[in-house]
Each structure stands twice: as C-alpha cells, then as structure tokens.
Amino acid sequence: MVQYLDLPLDLSFAALSDATRRGIIERLGRGAASITSLADQFQMTLTGMKKHIQVLERAGLVVTRKVGRVRTCTLGNRGLSAEAAWIEAHRKLFEARFDALDDILNEMKQEEGDDSKR
Fold it and tell me: What is the rounded radius of gyration, in angstroms, for the C-alpha atoms of the chain?
C-alpha cells in the first residue's frame, strides 16, 4: 500500500476526524477556556479532555498555557489554509469527473432519443 506523508495534513485531518475535537475547536473559536471547563462542557473526565487537547496541540490547532494550576486553551495561529486548499483541489477533481459523467449520460440520452425516432 502506498502511503503519502504530509504530516501537518495528516495530523490536522486525524485531529478533526473526531466530533468532540471539532466541538472543542468550535468552542475555542468563541474564546479561551480552561481544560476543566471544557471537560465539564463536554461531560467527560479531565483525563479524557487532556487527551483530546493533546491531539489538537500536536496538530497545531490548539495552544495551551499554564498559569498556576489552570491550563488555558486557545486556538492555534496555524489556521486551516493548507487543509482547505487540499479539500478544494480534490473537490474540483471530483466535480470535473461528475461533469464528464453528466456529458456521457446526456450523449447516451440523445443517442437513445435519436434511435427511437428511426
């Protein structure tokens, strides 16, 4: 099996593949939050939330800062432009293939219509 290695994309897509982590990103889009408050909001253990945050941090999507006993999370400054560009390129590829399929189907319908007139 061929494996493509684009570590930032792999880490981002893996991090975003989980609904809880997408929810954390959405929540942090409204402002910083402590890991404890995120755990409470998502009704999970502190340990579980820390694991989700670690995955998001590894992908560069979240940054944490510890002040005293409180670890605060914010969105990372990396953004998702590379991921959006990858998705857009593949969307265009699929769209072109579907357009080509539509053309073939339309030709077949025309030929079928022409054949029925004979």
Answer: 23
pLDDT tens-digit readout, 64-102:
999 999 999 999 988 888 889 989 998 888 888 888 888
HEC string of 69-118? CEEEEEECCCCCHHHHHHHHHHHHHHHHHHHHHHHHHHHHHHHHHHHHHC
Helix, strand and coil content of the chain, in percent to the nearest 5, comes to 65, 10, 25
Closest-CA residue to 80 (of 64, 56, 96) = 56
What is the rounded distance in angstroms from the CA atom of residue 81 to the CA atom of residue 1? 28
Token duo for residue 31: 């402002």
- Asked whether the beta carbons of 32 and 38 are under 8 A apart, the reply is no
